[in-house]
Each structure stands twice: as C-alpha cells, then as structure tokens.
C-alpha cells in the first residue's frame, strides 16, 4: 500500500553537480514552506556529491537511488511536486530523450504524466550548454510543461566570486496558484 502524507510531498531529485553539496539548503527551505521532502539521487550523485547521512537525518527518510525490488512497498508517497536541483547536462538530455535507466530518470520520465508541477534548476557550464542536444532537450521539456530556473554555469567570476545557486527559486516555481 502507498503511504499517505499529511503534508504535501515534494520529490527532490539530486544530480551529480558540485553544487549538490549544498542541497540541505533546499531541503530546509522546502520544509519551512510546509513540504515533506523525499530525496531521490542519481547513482553518481550518491558517490560523494552531498552528505547522504545528513540529508537522511534532515528528511527523516532514506535517500532513494536504486529501484526497489518488486515485492517492496513504494518507498515514498506519490509526489505533489518534483524539483530537480541541481540538474546536470547528462540527466536533462536523458530525461528529454525518455531514458529511464536510473530511479531518478524513471521518476522524472513519469512525473510529467502525473500532472504535478516540475521545476528544474540546471547547473551546466557554458561550453556544455552550447551543445545543440542540450538546447533541444530544454525545448522539449519546456513543451511538456516543465518549469526552468535561469541558466547557472557555476563558473567563477573575474573577481573570484561565484553566484549563489538559486535553491529557493525551485520552490517558487512549484508554488501552487
Ligand atoms: C566534481 C564534479 C563536478 C561536476 N559538476 C557538474 C555540473 O555542475 N554540471 C554537470 O552537468 N555535470 C557536472 N559534472 C559531471 C557529472 O557528474 C557527470 O556528467 C555525471 O555523469 C552526471 O550524472 P547524473 O546526471 O546521473 O547525476 C561534475 C563532475 C564532477 C566530478
């Protein structure tokens, strides 16, 4: 049986980009806005891109990365919204192409069909973002109703500073109403 959550349930899909180290900021902000959060990470992201122990403690739930076995119950309730932050070049392209070979991608491929709001905060360097496949992927996902934050390249400015990743923008994009 699928668990019911008294609060709206937000899936946070985490990809393997450097900024994922700060994903706790997104979880805190989401919880402050009344969301219950379940994290689904790509297998590469689980490989040291963020503090999985801290995120597990913060959400009170296991992080999902692998498919469950057929006999296991669904680990999270159905989502009321999905955010992908950070979203990598790799995941954006595979998702747009309909590839579902990880739990994160399978979840994303299914999400648009569920009719729930989906927000994406890409973190893709300028050179990679120039690839035509990436532009096509963004267009295709936008046509499916997926909402995007501003491009973020994560590159260092000439003064040595770096723009903060806009975590809370993802929550604004899935806000009801
Ligand atoms: C330290 C580090 C930082 C990375 N940062 C990014 C990034 O910001 N954006 C990106 O698209 N890929 C980045 N990559 C490359 C991805 O990790 C790689 O393409 C991976 O296959 C993505 O897997 P995923 O989309 O399944 O998470 C980074 C790799 C490393 C080792």
Automatic annotation (TrEMBL):
Ranges where the Flavoprotein domain occurs: 11-142
Signal peptide: none
InterPro entries per record: Flavin_trans-like (IPR036551), Flavoprotein (IPR003382)
One matching Pfam family: Flavoprotein
Name of the protein in question: Flavoprotein
Species: Streptomyces hirsutus
